[in-house]
Amino acid sequence: DTEVTQTPKHLVMGMTNKKSLKCEQHMGHRAMYWYKQKAKKPPELMFVYSYEKLSINESVPSRFSPECPNSSLLNLHLHALQPEDSALYLCASSLREVRESSGANVLTFGAGSRLTVL
Amino acid sequence: GENVEQHPSTLSVQEGDSAVIKCTYSDSASNYFPWYKQELGKRPQLIIDIRSNVGEKKDQRIAVTLNKTAKHFSLHITETQPEDSAVYFCAASILGNDMRFGAGTRLTVKP
User: Fold this and answer.
1) pLDDT tens, A39-51?
2) Residue of chain A minimizing CA distance to B5
3) Which residues of B touch A106 (CB under 8 A)?
4) Residue A103 — very low, low, confident or very high, per pLDDT cuts 50/70/90?
5) Measured between CB atoms, which of A102, A107, A112 is closest to B99?
6) Between B100 and which of A8, A25, B2, B17 could a Cys-Cys bridge form, CB atoms 3.0 to 4.6 Å apart?
7) A11: closest CA among A77, A55, A108?
8) Do the Cβ atoms of A33 and A97 come closer than 8 Å?
9) Is the CB of residue B44 less than 8 Å from the CB of residue A109?
10) Which residues of B touch A103 (CB under 8 A)?
11) DSSP letter for each residue of B47-111
């Protein structure tokens, strides 16, 4: 299995809803990431988990809550979102923890979850 | 933090011509520079990468050059084909898991 799988592909939610995005990989990767991508913009780093521990939080609002239940799964819990949070949310994974990889850390991206907040 | 600038934002070439996309980075500690291709509605995919201890790397029609002194790196695509049309992102990383992307270049290859 050489893929990162994201569900759902599309999600429409109201500002008062609670929903979750899910990401799964079975490549033995030990680092997992959430990126946010607005239309015609580059991916923006949100969170990084390394060995199932949160290692980077790019000052993301608390209405986004990441969770890494195990080395294969990464969730993004969504609550009280705003319309401007509508975007493509990309999950990615890479083989090993940064300091073991001498700076080279190939990311494998999932297909993304397209979120629309009404 | 790292800041990556990418130019041009759009690039149109005739099939068979070469295309060059340039990026600059701000932090001299950056040591890993990948390039991603993103077709419309699809995920970004790595096409080539280079580490800071190497000045140039080539893979068939694609090459990347790195100038550490000037803090810039470039993507070169030769003999372009219509299927090369996509958005290309450069990125730079200091620690490896802190990838910052450039703004992207929309490449159009006209048949």
Assistant:
1) 989 999 999 998 8
2) A42
3) 34, 46, 49
4) very low
5) A107
6) B2
7) A77
8) no
9) yes
10) 31-32, 51-52, 93-96
11) EEEEETT-SEEEETTEEEEEETTTTEEEEEE-S--GGG-EEEEEEEBSSSS--EE---EEEEEE-
